[in-house]
Structures are given as C-alpha cells and as structure tokens.
Write a structure and sequence with these properties.
By secondary structure, the chain is of the alpha+beta class. The chain has one domain. Helix content is 30%, strand content 16%. It is built from five helices and six strands. It has a two-stranded antiparallel ribbon. The protein has a two-stranded antiparallel ribbon with strand order 3-4. The mean pLDDT is 95.
Length: 139
C-alpha cells in the first residue's frame, strides 16, 4: 500500500465509490483482493493526489490501465481516451447485459473495455454469477 495518499483520503474515495470498482463495477466484498486507490491521470502525466484525480479500482482494472490515459481503438485505429470516473457518466459509455458482458456505447467505452480487458472470460463468468446472486444488476 502506498503511503503518500492519507488513510482518510483513501476512505473517502472508497466511500464515494460505494466500495465498488469505478471501472468494472466489481464490489469489493465480492473480491479476494484489496482494492486500490488509482490515479485517473497518473503522476507521470501531471496528475495529483487531489481527491478529484483518485478512483477506487479493483487490482485487475488498475493493473491493466497502468499509467495510460488512452489506447488505439477503432478502424482505422485512432488514439481514444479512457473513461474518466470523475468527468464521465458510466452509463453514457457502457452497459452490462445479463450474460455479464460489458457492451460499449461509445468509442471511449470500447477503448476502456478493450485496454482494461474488462470482458475477459473469467470476469464475465464472475459477473454473471454476481448478477444471478443479486449482487450486481444488468444496466
């Protein structure tokens, strides 16, 4: 755990996100792993520790996003930014179907799903089980 983000700030970020990954919507209570405080814009790209630049993230989304701000996506490929949890509305960019698969609504959603590997088979299976158990809802 990084020590440069104060415990109180970490708690505020987790509470703001209802202890749910702000990218893939996985509830912390459904994971074996401790969730992380993620810099939406990494420090290497000028991001700060300000609470508006911090997101609650499962380790898988955080690892896959890394310090990236976007990726090449589309045909032909163009540089597309990722979903930004503070500036964007999740439902404008994604939906979640009953099979547990995320469906993109925009290029930002498509780029984020692809780069964060949000539709890997293990995650889809886990989300489907959570939907069936009533822990997640298709949206």
């Amino acid at each position: 755990m990084s020590r440069y983000i104060p415990v109180k700030t970490r708690q505020l970020v987790a509470e703001r996100a209802s202890h749910t990954c702000e990218y893939c919507l996985l509830p912390q209570k459904a994971s074996f792993f401790v969730f992380q405080i993620e810099h939406v814009i990494s420090k290497k790209h000028g991001g700060s520790n300000d609470i508006q630049n911090l997101a609650y993230s499962c380790p898988i989304c955080n690892r896959n996003k890394g310090t990236d701000l976007g990726t090449l996506s589309g045909n032909p490929p163009i540089l597309t930014r990722f979903f930004h949890p503070r500036n964007d509305i999740w439902l404008h960019h994604f939906s979640l179907d009953t099979s547990g698969e995320f469906l993109p609504k925009t290029e930002v959603g498509s780029a984020t799903i692809m780069a964060l590997d949000m539709n890997n088979i293990e995650s889809i299976i886990d989300r489907k089980k959570l939907i069936q158990a009533g822990e997640m809802k298709p949206i």
